[in-house]
TrEMBL record:
InterPro entries: DUF6015
Protein name (record): Uncharacterized protein
Compositional bias (Acidic residues): 102-123
Region entry Disordered, spans: 97-123
Organism the protein comes from: Marine Group III euryarchaeote CG-Bathy1
One matching Pfam family: DUF6015
Length: 123
């Protein structure tokens, strides 16, 4: 199994439609921030996150690069205890980190405004 690197995550973020507006420096900084939490693991406990970090994780979950999970256990006194985790989707990151030939088509990068004639903007 291949090891997930900052470069893989940065490429996956850049190749995600939701983050296509980000520059290389922004996606690289975000990747470094995320990888600092995970290290060599593919999941972390939610309790270590600050609210702004959790918001970032929710955004990555919405784009399909992360997911949440939880475990429940019964304590000695009978109460239920829930542990919430964040899991990084390594296979999805590897898939997105490699751009397919279909994505490299120039028409996919065109803006919708490029098809509109220039004279339409004049009053």
């Amino acid at each position: 199994m291949e090891v997930l690197t900052i470069s893989h995550l940065s490429s996956a973020i850049s190749n995600s439609q939701e983050y296509s507006h980000m520059s290389f420096e922004e996606s690289d900084a975000l990747s470094r921030h995320i990888m600092n939490f995970f290290g060599f693991s593919d999941r972390i406990i939610d309790n270590v996150l600050q609210p702004e970090d959790r918001d970032t994780f929710y955004m990555l979950e919405d784009s399909g690069l992360m997911e949440t999970a939880r475990e429940e256990t019964t304590l000695y006194d009978g109460r239920e205890w829930r542990i919430h985790y964040w899991t990084i989707k390594i296979s999805e990151i590897f898939t997105r980190s490699v751009k397919s030939d279909d994505d490299s088509d120039d028409s996919s990068n065109d803006s919708v405004y490029e098809d509109i004639p220039d004279d339409i903007w004049s009053r």
